[in-house]
Amino acid sequence: MTPLEALRACRDRFAEYEKSHAEKGTPDGYAKAARNAEMRLMCEVVIPDLERAPQAPSAETWVQWNGGDYCPVRPDLKVDTRLRKGSESKGPVPARCLTWEHEGSDCDIVAYRIVS
Fold it and tell me: What is the pLDDT of residues 22-70, one digit of tens each?
């Protein structure tokens, strides 16, 4: 289950909870009201934001890289790279083992794709 799927399931359980309490007329205390407000925020703001967010690139998708002071993916993921000089890596390498900042050399990474 992805994080987004988990949030959706949580949202659905919350909707059922609210409906059952509305039908029973169960009074909510301050703590329950605060929790309900948090859940409403998640349902109305967080989930729609996640649904609009760009999805992680697939293994076939090359992502352009313009350099930066950080690794653009989780350090443990293996990636293929394209260098400024036009060559591609011969096999996947853990992202943490690469130099992601650009130094103006032919060996600067200009694109990558996540392999695993």
Answer: 666 655 555 566 667 777 766 676 666 666 655 566 667 898 999 887 8
Structural domain contains residue 25: yes
77-97 average pLDDT score: 93
41 and 22 part of one domain: yes
Q: What is the 3-class SS of the chain, one letter each residue?
A: CCHHHHHHHHHHHHHHHHHHHHHHCCCCCHHHHHHHHHHHHHHHHHHHHHHHCCCCCCCCCCEECCCCCCCCCCCCCEEEEEECCCCECCCCEEHHHCCCCCCCCCCCEEEEEECC
Residues 92, 73 share a domain: yes
